[in-house]
Write a structure and sequence with these properties.
307 residues; Rossmann fold; Arc Repressor Mutant, subunit A; 2 domains; elongated; DNA-binding transcription factor activity
Length: 307
């Protein structure tokens, strides 16, 4: 299959599903199509109409589509009364579908309390994972084999990706979009959705490309658009400044004032983030280095040591 072919994203819906757990990532993947990153979104459940916790019914198919390892299965969270923790397990058919996709080499995603369903299915045993801050202690207590990472937006461990509360599904979807199609596409998608500002600023899982977009400097946004799109290339400051119609000094001063970084440091942050994402997918150090613009792994190691 061509790597440019659309990926399928399957949302597994359970009665009581939280609307934003579904709508946030779905909007990201849908909007990305405007920038050349095409995803097919589909929704599966045990019944054709699934009531959400907010009262809006969601239509779904009852048969799973054919999936490849490139595709995603997303398990949004759903509302469970405090005294019914057992209700966090997926229905049997949905559980089997999620496990089959992962066993076939596919990627599995959870949003908020959806992490409990993955943990119950055994997919988080021995893995790092996160969930909403109000239930992260419960996740650790109920599933002691899970390495619960607290107070971060999202965590990726191999082909399992978990996110924190509610709207953090947007952050995780943007991260996956950046891994699939590069930081430029993800940055443009985020700007279109008006979610450029990053939350939880100390989280190691946050996106470098968006962490430094929390400003209103048009010149710097235009410079970042170029760097995001060509982060793996050798971008000389004089050429970048000339393309933007300003002096090197003007560009550097504006960039540092808006982001706290020089253009070169910003590009290096993008390269390092992309390198970590690829390494997490099992790429060799040499192949990672070449993918982010280095001739070999030595420069990448030096950059990591200096960061």
């Amino acid at each position: 299959m061509s790597t440019n072919a659309p990926r399928t994203v399957v949302f597994v819906l359970v009665p009581g599903v939280e609307l934003l757990d579904v709508a946030g990532p779905a909007q990201v993947f849908c909007e990305a199509g405007e920038y050349g990153a095409h995803y097919r979104l589909t929704y599966v459940a045990d019944q054709p109409l699934v009531p959400s916790h907010q009262g809006l019914g969601l239509s779904a198919g009852t048969a799973w589509p054919d999936l490849s390892p490139r595709d995603y299965v997303v398990v949004p969270g759903w509302h469970v009364p405090d005294d019914t923790g057992a209700g966090r397990a997926l229905p049997e058919a949905a559980r089997a579908g999620v496990l089959a996709h992962h066993a076939a080499g596919g990627q599995v995603v959870s949003v908020c309390a959806g992490a409990f369903a993955l943990a119950e299915a055994g997919l988080l045993d021995g893995r790092r994972a996160t969930t909403h801050h109000e239930i992260q202690d419960e996740l650790a207590r109920c599933h002691p084999r899970v390495d619960v990472v607290r107070d971060v937006l999202h965590v990726s461990d191999g082909r399992i990706h978990t996110s924190a509360g509610i709207a953090s599904g947007i952050d995780l979807a943007l991260h996956l979009l950046a891994v699939d199609h590069g930081p430029a596409v993800a940055a443009r998608t985020a700007r279109a959705l008006v979610v450029a500002a990053r939350r939880n600023g100390t989280a190691p899982q946050e996106s470098a490309m968006l962490r430094h977009r929390d400003h209103l400097a048009d010149l710097v946004h235009r410079a970042q658009d170029v760097i995001d799109d060509r982060y793996a290339e050798s971008l000389r400051l004089p050429v970048l400044a000339a393309d933007l119609g300003v002096s090197e000094r003007t560009l550097t001063r504006a960039f540092v004032a808006a982001t706290g970084l020089t253009p070169l440091r910003y590009q290096q942050a993008l390269r390092l983030e992309r390198a970590e994402a690829l390494a997490g997918q099992g790429w060799t150090q040499e192949s990672v280095a070449r993918a982010v613009g280095f001739s070999d792994a030595r420069m990448l190691r030096r950059l990591r040591a200096a960061s």
